[in-house]
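Posting here for the record, re: 3-(2-carboxyethyl)benzoic acid.
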Amino acid sequence: MEHPDLHLELLTTPEPSWEGALGAALFSGEAHSAPTAPLACPADLPLARVSMPLLDGHAAAIECWRIAGRTRTGSHGAIRYAHSDEFLFGSLHLSEEAPAAGHTGLERATERAYREMHATLEASGFAQLLRVWNYLPDINLESRGTERYRQFNSARQEALLACGRDIRGNVPAASALGSTAGPLSIYFLAGRTAPAFIENPRQVSAYHYPAQYGPRAPSFSRAALVRHRGATLFISGTSSILGHRTLHEGDPAAQTRETLTNIEALIGEANRLKVGTFRLDSLAYKVYVRHPEDLPLIRAEIDSAVGTRAPRVYLRADVCRHDLSMEIEAVGQRA
Ligand code: 3EB
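Prediction output follows.
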């Protein structure tokens, strides 16, 4: 198959080809500081390292974003980036510092991360954030009376407002998951023009969630569809939520079916835009599983709905609501 000009490869082989790589993320059970850099990875490639074990026996997974044509690399504050004419990939790792001025260490790191991301985008002419992946340790832990995921949401929203960005509507597709250890790790893709943002008709938009899920709603879109010479559909972290409520608590198989129904709804919305026909059996998937013992049930549901052809990796991660056992994100690609 001919590859589109922006192209994702999701690999569990130890060493991909770095030819044409724009940026990458490395997931493994090893500590963030461990020397797990892929052997031949170019020194200036933006590489996010996330402490997150794989559940299917592989030592590591690499999410490699490739691009046709020339790329340039650079850095801005804590951010390392690479860009082509059309797309920019950036990554950053920020350790949490001491609380200050009424903000927790995580809130300070999140606010700084999002301010530096937007400063990078403004300086480089890639005004449009398309897709953001957020990983933070102890995502469900409370500190100073507030769950850390909620702290993250507050700081993300404050930073967006401080940067003059929208907090609803024109907000990127995203995922936010609990890593095993390490700093706040974020990587992102940006472009020069706005994508089509897609919401799920079965769900309340996350940016309209009521206050019971936290004082500041999560600023992300359910999906973003980007046209280039091909097209890329970024499906955000998706879970067993109908309206704004969790369904099937304690039943990971039913939660997986509900999640896949949500993904199908997003595919349906995307296909109405007539950019390409995306299908459940031809996306690439990252599946986050809270309890490793649930993997066989979750995998069986995915195999039966998705088939065996689509690339997928299973990662052990905390999901951002206590009553969710799993979450799935996906990428669709059209040449
Ligand atoms: C949900 O649907 C599940 O805070 O950026 C999914 C994707 C979730 C992204 C984020 C959160 C985020 O609300 C949680």
